[in-house]
Design a protein that fits this description.
The protein is of the alpha/beta class. The strands form 2 sheets. Strands 1-2-4-3 form a 4-stranded mixed beta sheet, covered by helices on one side. A 4-stranded mixed beta sheet has the order 5-6-8-7, covered by helices on one side. The relative contact order is 0.20. Helix content is about 35%, strand content about 30%. It starts with 5 loop residues before the first strand and ends in a 17-residue tail after the last helix.
Length: about 200
Amino acid sequence: MNIERKSKKTRTTGETQISIEINMDGKGVSEIKSPVGMLNHMLDQIARHGLIDIKASIEGDLETGTHHIIEDAAIVLGMCIDDALGDRVGILRMGDKTCLLDEALCSVALDLSGRGYSVIDMGSSDNEGEFSLDMGRHFYESLSANGRFGIHLRMLSGSNHHHILESSFKTFSRALREAASFDPRRVDSIASTKGSL
């Protein structure tokens, strides 16, 4: 299929100023700037392992912590994914991956259904640090709501919080790459009995 699946979205609030540009069929190139180092690292995982080119400029107020910046980045990235996927004709629609990073093992099932729904188990409700595991849960909830896809994410094992987060992002990226891939047997149809997603 000869379709450019690209999008650029911006969001400006009293708390954040965010601009994200993606190419779903990229080479995994990222240019990400935010004041939250772990967010930069995780968005880079999505680019590299999802083969999605991502250019992001993320600014915001850190006086109340990193919550608003991470949440709004997920909102804008979700909007970009939804826009870039368009009517979702010809895609596999579903992806299911399990990936590890040392002791951390994560499973992600994804459905680019056109409906946002999330069931997220990060293995802990830890809420410490600039990008906590609880914030990871909220990131995926915001991403799926705005990207209009269903996600079940379960952390099967892990003790190092950095590894748990990174494992989840790598696994999500691989599942998204699979689900968004074109099915050569489908071409001009949509993987739904409804006829639309």
